[in-house]
Amino acid sequence: MQRGASNVDQASVHHLKVQLHIVRSESPQAVASAITCLRLFGIDIPPHPTWEHVQTESEAIWHNLKGQSIESLIDLPLMSDPEMRAAMDMLSALLPPAYFTDHQLFCLLVCRLVNVSVQHGTTGASALAYGYCGVILGAVSHRYSEGYRFAKLACDLVDIGTDV
Description:
- By secondary structure, the protein is mainly α.
- The protein has a domain of 114 residues.
- Helices cover 71% and strands 0% of the residues.
- The chain is globular.
- The relative contact order is 0.14.
């Protein structure tokens, strides 16, 4: 960790550490390690967010869309900032242990991944986030139409095979 010359280098080490915790079924430790890494990029996520945190992040999706359609997100440019790409990779690596430790954390992460994608462009994690967002919008928020549209967007991104 001390040899990492940049935040991106340090994130690579954290990513390996998170994966090791996941393989060892140490979800709380994986969450802690990922949250520590995300702070390198100015992303502060509580390990046990309140439902109000989730709702605020969810509402930010609609604010960040600024009236554009969900379907138009397929035309976002690829994310070029290496630090944001590393943060997206860590956010997506955090999804499995979050699922097993705190449902609200999982929902918050999905919404954050969508928001970062909308603001900074598409990565491989974007398709994953859009798919999960579809599930959350339907099952949790009863916004079935928007949930379907996000899930379809995820499938469409995979179908076009964008090299993200």
